[in-house]
Design goal:
single chain, mainly alpha, about 70% helix, about 425 residues
Length: about 425
Amino acid sequence: MTNSFKENITKYTSKNKYQIKNILFVIAMWLSSRLLIAVTMLFIAPLFPAPPNGIAATFGWDVFTAWDSAWYQQIVTNGYQPSDNGALYSTAFFPLFPLIIRIFMNLGLPFAVAGTLINSFAFLAALIILYFWVNESYGKSAARWTTAVLAWCPYSLYGTVVYTEGLFLLCSISALRAFDKKQYISTVFWGGLATATRVTGITLIPAFLFVSWKERRGLKAYFASLAVGSGFAFYNLYCQIKFGDALAFLHAQKGWRSSVGFDWQGWRKMLMEIVVGQTNANGSIQEPWHLLIFTIIVGSCYLLWHFRSQLGSVKVRYGFCLFWFLLWLITGDSLIRIAIIFGGLYLLWFSRNKIPLVAVLYGFFSYALILNTGLAASVERYAYGIVSLSFAFGLLLARYPRWGYAIMGFFAIILATFGIRFSQELWLA
């Protein structure tokens, strides 16, 4: 055996071991976060009585189905059918996810089992692809933090329950990575699946077209950019043939909103709930304690920042973590929503020269779509589905890992509470 052959074998073996370690890390992030969700939903939530406007959680697969899950079950069982009032509300939900569920149900799996497993394992695949995409250009530390952010973000709950988040993240991340690597056949395949999973997948098209023009990629890139809309186009064609309305999915949105555009009133109310509290959000101060506590916390944060050099980095870091936690205790979901939407938008702008251009543009185009739906509800869940935010946040935490550990701990707390609330059919996003 020659020395060169031995060297090649050694390199190949070392590379494989390195790849296995990377995959094991991703699996650990996925499995630990999914176990937290499963434990809180299956074992902890049933210990609580039924809350107002909710139900008592029970042990079983049905705990992973609520809200939009019922629409997917209706589509899987009966296809796209008009509601009692003749409206085509079910067409608002794109076909790829229910189609895959139907395939697995034909193999003997119940709806809840099939939907949960499909979404969960698609989410795992999305994490693996994201890890290697980041690792190829930014190194192991950035890849690990990016994976941790996507896996432990509280809204990653929707990567396990019967929703489309896991499948959409798999398709959109794969399409973005393929286009970034100029692998246009894979781009068309995964992009087509993304646009057949969720309407926000169409934001891949302008992002790819702009990058094709900016980087002068040629006709193949332009063709691939347009071809990713194939899933969307086929669904349009189906709606036209079956219902005589190619935009039935768009018209169905009237069941949830009366107009489109930026929901100024909804976001203003959310901001008021943070500052003065839910009781006082309508304009009159009926309960002054929330405003007083909010003022004390914000003032304390300012003093902590002002005297940061005298206090030292450790005390300042722990102080900010404590004040953020207290602020969340008195404000609840409104704080999380404002942070993920507008904090994420700022982070995307801040990181525009650090992450791939295609990810930046995809993020901004996605924001333009989801912020102009006419609602403030559910926008944070759609923002979580924009992988560009996790990409940017992961790179940031790779530079400040001590902050990252505290943030992951906070994420775990919120994720656990989200699991309990979802299992009780309390509204999240």
